[in-house]
Write a structure and sequence with these properties.
- This protein is mainly beta and 98 residues long.
- The chain contains 1 helix and 7 strands.
- Strands 1, 2, 3, 4, 5, 6 and 7 form a 7-stranded mixed β-sheet that branches.
- β3 and β4 form a beta hairpin.
Length: 98
């Protein structure tokens, strides 16, 4: 992948498939590599490969300042911190470069 934020049209035109990526549903800390970044309406979709090989997608919001991922280069190794809401939903709370 190029080091850029793709649009939906870019993904289609370049035939970049993301269907192998799923949501992470467990809270905790995970080591991962940033694979891809893509714009969505009001958020940034980020795609990771976890150290255990899982392909994970997450969304980060503008009010989170995109957790710094908008500017982060593809291929960066990260420590991801996932937390659980009181309703049981899991979300990406913070990111650290390794």
């Amino acid at each position: 992948m190029e080091n850029k934020v793709y649009t939906q049209e870019d993904l289609r035109m370049e035939n970049i498939l993301t269907m192998d990526y799923v949501l992470n549903l467990e809270p905790g800390d995970f080591v991962a590599v940033l694979d891809l970044k893509a714009k969505a309406r009001n958020c940034l979709r980020v795609f990771f490969t976890f150290d255990d090989g899982r392909k994970i997608i997450a969304t980060v919001q503008w009010w989170q300042k995109y957790l710094g991922l908008y500017e982060m280069p593809v291929g960066t190794k990260l420590l991801l911190h996932y937390c659980e809401f009181s309703r049981g939903e899991v979300y990406l709370k913070s990111v650290e470069r390794l």
